[in-house]
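step=encode ok
step=design start
structure_in=
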């Protein structure tokens, strides 16, 4: 018997189309900020040649992004309309009816196919675009190993978590989301503490910063601001890219600061201390704990909403699964994997709103960490470090304000420099 597409199908379709249109509109707004001539506000940051190169880089990256997003949209549209998800689910049911095995195979196949499809795009981005602009340091061997390690890690960790969640769903009834929330919370805290110890070494080598001027300067500043820090590491970021970075990770005794070797090569000791002062500012202002707490609350909220849609005694569950049949006329067998996939597509508008709030708070926290650094080191030094970071990465220094609202977790450079000017005036 043929089934007409459900209301949820059209809702998912509308969400996908509107999201695609919104992203293309935001990208268009960014193009209105491009200029062939060095803008006055960027003089002293970019020179003419650097600015021209940055504009070319932005144009190439945006064109490639448009190709990828359009391809992904069309593929997802075809998969949804043709009922491919239902076809795959029914195919797997011919071999097993075990709910845990079904979910693992279902998402495993989708993940594997997605990874394989993305490989040509990743190759072009890494070995053509990034290579052309002098950023790529990744060898073909490293690229292949990264892909294989990523797939293996996803299979082990992702598959294990998925199996456990499905088991709880089958065992705990409609309140399963509370148990899942607790388990995911423990996992999030565990990863916040041990990610740099367990996951990063699979892809990069981390070594303690050698004794010397830089380590003495960092430890001296840490003591000055009452920040107990024993773990200062250097990561071999140069094995993949010439772009520089630094980050703070861990909690309590497991906290550590990680410097990219490219960052050390490109900055003076004073500039590096200023950058780390910013990272320490996040910890002193409790931004790290705040981020973890918000993530936990958002996860609980999402799981609660999910439980309303896929609970066994709800008509929504069957209707939600059937929405993935598109125009194929196939009848869906209600199951966890179909329900959670359809829910994920429906949840995206709410996820977008929460993401906007997260980005707003993140930008606010970046200003706060900048002020902390400006108050405890020379604000001018931090300004120079931020300029150097942006120029070396050919960053877009004039993004459209609306694009910033949707996509920037950090304020644009010019806004940060202006805020630091106010900090210097107070000194």
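sequence_out=
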């Amino acid at each position: 018997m043929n089934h007409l597409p459900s209301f949820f199908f059209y809702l998912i379709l509308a969400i996908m189309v509107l999201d695609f249109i919104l992203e293309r509109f935001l990208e268009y707004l960014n193009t209105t900020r491009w200029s062939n001539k060095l803008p006055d506000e960027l003089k002293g940051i970019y020179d003419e040649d650097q600015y021209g190169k940055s504009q070319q880089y932005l144009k190439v990256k945006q064109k490639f992004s448009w190709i990828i997003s359009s391809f992904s949209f069309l593929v997802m549209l075809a998969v949804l309309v043709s009922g491919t998800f239902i076809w795959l689910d029914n195919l797997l049911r011919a071999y097993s009816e075990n709910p845990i095995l079904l979910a693992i195979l279902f998402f495993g196949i989708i993940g594997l196919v997605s990874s394989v499809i993305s490989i040509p795009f990743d190759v072009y981005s890494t070995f053509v675009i990034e290579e052309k602009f002098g950023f790529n340091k990744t060898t073909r061997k490293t690229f292949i190993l990264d892909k294989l390690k990523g797939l293996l890690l996803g299979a082990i960790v992702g598959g294990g978590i998925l199996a456990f969640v499905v088991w709880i769903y089958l065992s705990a009834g409609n309140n399963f989301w509370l148990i899942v929330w607790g388990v995911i919370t423990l996992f999030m805290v565990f990863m916040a503490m041990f990610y740099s110890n367990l996951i990063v070494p699979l892809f990069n080598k981390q070594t303690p910063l050698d004794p010397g001027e830089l380590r003495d300067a960092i430890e001296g500043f840490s003591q000055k601001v009452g920040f107990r820090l024993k773990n200062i590491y250097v990561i071999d970021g140069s094995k993949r890219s010439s772009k520089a970075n630094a980050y703070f990770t861990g909690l309590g005794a497991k906290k550590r600061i990680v410097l990219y070797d490219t960052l050390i090569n490109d900055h003076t000791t004073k500039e590096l201390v200023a950058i780390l002062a910013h990272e320490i500012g996040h910890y002193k202002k409790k931004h790290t704990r705040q981020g973890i707490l918000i993530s936990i609350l958002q996860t609980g909220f999402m799981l609660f909403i999910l439980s309303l849609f896929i609970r066994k005694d709800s008509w929504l569950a069957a209707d939600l699964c059937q929405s993935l049949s598109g125009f194929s006329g196939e009848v869906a067998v209600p199951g966890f994997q179909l329900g959670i996939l359809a829910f994920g597509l429906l949840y995206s508008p709410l996820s977008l709103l929460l993401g906007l709030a997260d980005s707003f708070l993140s930008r606010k926290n970046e200003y706060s960490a900048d002020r902390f650094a400006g108050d405890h080191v020379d604000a001018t030094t931090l300004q120079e470090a931020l300029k150097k970071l942006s120029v070396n990465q050919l960053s877009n220094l004039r993004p459209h304000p609306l694009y910033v609202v949707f996509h920037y977790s950090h304020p644009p450079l010019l806004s940060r420099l202006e805020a630091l000017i106010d900090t210097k005036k107070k000194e």
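step=design ok
step=annotate ok -> The first strand starts at residue 206 and ends at 208.
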